[in-house]
Specification:
two-stranded antiparallel ribbon, mainly beta, about 90 residues, 7 strands, five-stranded mixed β-sheet
Length: about 90
């Protein structure tokens, strides 16, 4: 997968298994579809910790359902790390 997020080229998505504990309706293919929706957009980090930036997007639409995606990016890296994802309402 190749994306551009915040003007950065992204070639890899790393998905933490955290979502499996509390959100059994989620799965890796669905999370990858949500990540694709970030392509071409700019986001402001909710938190910055040294070289890590943490983001959250609420109300991502997929097949008529709303999701929240929480992810991180590391300065000068080519990946997005998905921390959590779950369906809203």
């Amino acid at each position: 997968m190749t994306l551009t997020v915040n003007g950065r080229l992204i070639t890899e998505v790393i998905i933490d298994s955290h979502y499996e504990q509390n959100h059994p309706d989620m799965n890796d293919p669905l999370i990858l579809e949500l990540v694709k929706k970030l392509n071409g957009n700019e986001y402001k980090p909710g938190e910055v910790d040294e070289e890590w930036e943490f983001y959250a997007v609420d109300r991502l639409d997929h097949d008529g359902k709303q999701y929240r995606l929480v992810w991180c990016m590391k300065e000068h890296s080519l990946f997005i790390g998905v921390i959590n994802a779950f369906r809203r309402g």
